[in-house]
Amino acid sequence: MEKTVNQKAWFLVLPVLVLVAFSAVIPLMTVVNYSVQDTFGNNEFYWAGLEWFSEMLDSERMWNALSRQLVFSAIILAIEVPLGIFVALNMPKKGFWASLCLVLMALPLLVPWNVVGTIWQIFGRVDIGLLGYTLDKIGIPYNYTQDFFAAWATVIIMDVWHWTSLVALLAYAGLQSIPDAYYQAAKIDQASRLAVFRFIELPKMQGVLMIAILLRFMDSFMIYTEPFVVTGGGPGNSTTFLSIDLVKMALGQFDLGPAAAFSIMYFLVILLISWVFYTVMTNLEKREGA
Amino acid sequence: MAWMAWTVPTAIFFCVIALALLTFTVLAIRYPETPRLGVLRIETTRGDRLFITLLGSAFINLAWLGTMSDPQWWALILCLVYATAVFRWV
């Protein structure tokens, strides 16, 4: 019997398509339109061609923000992914403690971003914050409003505090899905703990880790609220990441054209890196499966 | 639509992309895609190659704008060469 081909189910995705068009595609098209024009308000636009793109490509400010952003994303990925896996490996597998751990791990994820920023802004203050006060008393110089290193450390530790649990929860879900038979086989072969991790747990976690890395990369690359609340991009420009710089340009200076050109380049970089991550990971998965 | 600040060049730009997507959808329905391994050693379908072409072209254009003083048309020609290479070998 021949299977009937019915493609009508595609109509069921229409609402999502409309929603994405309104929330993403149309705004993005508008940004492209803005990027080739100049405006002085009143919805009046003047053709500028590729001028803003040239200006942005020559702008030291943009390159600096981009390099700060790349360094930031690389550092937090290098910390959060191994740390998340380590936490997941050490979490209880079942029972009361497993549930408690899950709830505790999920807590930081529920805190709104600006609240996380405020918590750390106060926590790090030398006069009233527990962290700042303690460090100051034991003689470690720490002032995130004036010192470049302290500002970076605060922003990175804050991100690790906020998001490592996401990686841990995803890795934990991956670990839970490994059937016992694998561990039994490893035991029969007298595999070391490291070998179990390398040849059973890590390959089995690959799918969820791919999602974790992608999510953490994209989120950290777009980070705005937390560093904005804690350091406001300072001291100087040392924690001015791409989106902070972009908002300064678009809303602070109302330079819509350059800001639009900047956002398009920002979007392209995210798209490229995410695509590379995704392709590498899915191809590794296929090769492992083959 | 006035708030979207449309211009003729950007309208043409989006029409070309929409047309490319439409063409590739029709092609995918008429001649179903089969993934293949290319020089990058990754499996790509026709749609993937279109994506690689479009994304790469954006970067070629930006690189040209940032480094060369010649007109942007040359970058577009370079993109066509790049597209041919992607569809042939990737």
Automatic annotation (TrEMBL), chain A:
Q: Which residues form the ABC transmembrane type-1 domain?
A: 66-277
Name the InterPro entries on file: MetI-like (IPR000515), MetI-like_sf (IPR035906), Sugar_ABC_transporter (IPR052730)
Q: Which GO terms describe its cellular component?
A: plasma membrane
Primary subcellular site in the record, as a coarse category: membrane
Q: Membrane-crossing residues? A: 12-36, 70-89, 96-123, 149-175, 196-218, 259-278
Record flagged with keyword Membrane: yes
Instruction: Report if keyword Transport is assigned.
Output: yes
Task: Give the way it sits in the membrane.
Answer: Multi-pass membrane protein
One family from Pfam that matches here is: BPD_transp_1
Q: Where in the cell?
A: Cell membrane
Q: Which keywords describe this protein according to UniProt?
A: Membrane, Transmembrane, Transmembrane helix, Transport
The Gene Ontology biological process terms listed for this entry are: transmembrane transport
Q: Which family does it belong to?
A: Belongs to the binding-protein-dependent transport system permease family.
Q: What is this protein called?
A: Sugar ABC transporter permease
Organism of this sequence: Roseibium limicola
From TrEMBL, chain B:
Keyword annotations: Membrane, Transmembrane, Transmembrane helix
Annotated membrane-spanning segments are: 6-29, 50-67, 73-89
**Highest taxon of the lineage:** Bacteria
State the protein's name.
DUF2160 domain-containing protein
Q: Which organism is it from?
A: Roseibium limicola
